[in-house]
Design a protein that fits this description.
The chain is mainly α. The protein has a domain of 54 residues. Helix content is 45%, strand content 0%. The protein has 3 helices and no strands. The longest helix has 24 residues.
Length: 118
């Protein structure tokens, strides 16, 4: 029985297979400014889109939506005041803890002493 493949390995294999069939772009000339995409999205067939199956113009739609959202005025609401921290219990001072330990030790010692006398 074969072991299941690692999801990261499957994704890497799929990206490698997609890159093999992707069209090659010519390197940009030195005098022009570099392009943001290696291949213009209008030249790509729909088969060379994202692995999720999105069309080639989805990136332009996302950029347009982000530009529209960034140009819209935003109103910031003031942050609500933080509630005061609630103290569930106060810490005992060290001398109370020491006194309690001594009293418990004396009580335990007296019980053990009474049990050994019997």
């Amino acid at each position: 029985m074969s072991e299941p493949k690692d999801p990261e390995q499957l994704l890497a294999d799929a990206l490698r297979a997609q890159a093999v069939f992707a069209p090659q772009a010519a390197p940009p000339a030195r005098d022009t400014e570099p392009a943001t995409d290696a291949v213009p999205t209008s030249d790509l067939p729909s088969a060379y889109g994202l692995l999720s199956g999105a069309s080639a113009d989805s990136l332009e739609r996302e950029r347009a939506a982000l530009d529209a959202a960034s140009e819209a005025p935003t109103a910031f609401a003031p942050r609500p005041p933080e509630p005061a921290p609630v103290r569930t219990s106060a810490q005992l001072p060290a001398y109370w803890i020491l006194l309690l330990a001594v009293l418990l030790g004396l009580a335990a010692g007296s019980v053990v002493g009474l049990l050994t006398l019997v």
